[in-house]
Design goal:
This protein has 6 helices and 2 strands. The protein is mainly α. It has one domain. The longest helix has 27 residues.
Length: 169
């Protein structure tokens, strides 16, 4: 018996204010958290890009949201403009594309995908910095693994909270 592939058709919609408020809250928390060594591990804007990419399942929307969030993060940081923009654009596009094929509504797949997407983001960010700017970056270290785990765990909790605001189409 042949198994046929059926793409996931369940797409969630959000009121535009929910998306704006979620991204704005991520930036505000990111900026105003005390910069202790533990709290610098979080990348809340990345979690927003991944969540809305998973939920909308539209690669174009994931790409645009990743671009806007990434460039905004570049403007708020001391990094050259474009590094986060390019990295988060690729993450948003990939998250939205992959969510049509993988169940992203359960906690365990979310945890594993968030862990993987954090590393994907780091690889893209470090590669762009290295190729275009000659910056040295660590791709594999205890700090990166720790940050990936912290973001994956936080993402599962944040995603459960944001699930309350979504509507099916």
């Amino acid at each position: 018996m042949a198994v046929t592939y059926q793409p996931r058709t369940e797409v969630y919609r959000f009121h535009p204010l929910v998306v704006f408020a979620g991204v704005l809250a991520a930036f505000l928390v990111q900026v105003f958290l005390p910069l202790t060594s533990f709290l610098t591990l979080f990348d809340l804007p990345l979690l927003m890009v991944i969540y809305f990419g998973f939920s909308r399942r539209n690669p174009s929307m994931g790409l645009v949201l990743g671009l806007v969030v990434g460039v905004t993060q570049d403007l708020l940081s001391h990094n050259p403009v474009g590094l986060y923009g390019m990295a988060k654009t690729l993450v948003g596009y990939t998250a939205a594309s992959l969510s049509a094929r993988v169940d992203t509504d359960r906690p365990v797949p979310r945890l594993l995908l968030l862990f993987g997407f954090f590393h994907f983001h780091q690889i893209v960010y470090a590669s762009i910095g290295r190729l275009l700017l000659g910056q040295a970056a660590e791709l594999i270290s205890l700090r990166v693994l720790e940050a990936a785990l912290v973001n994956a765990l936080a993402g599962v909790l944040v995603f459960a909270l944001l699930d309350r605001f979504r509507r099916t189409t």
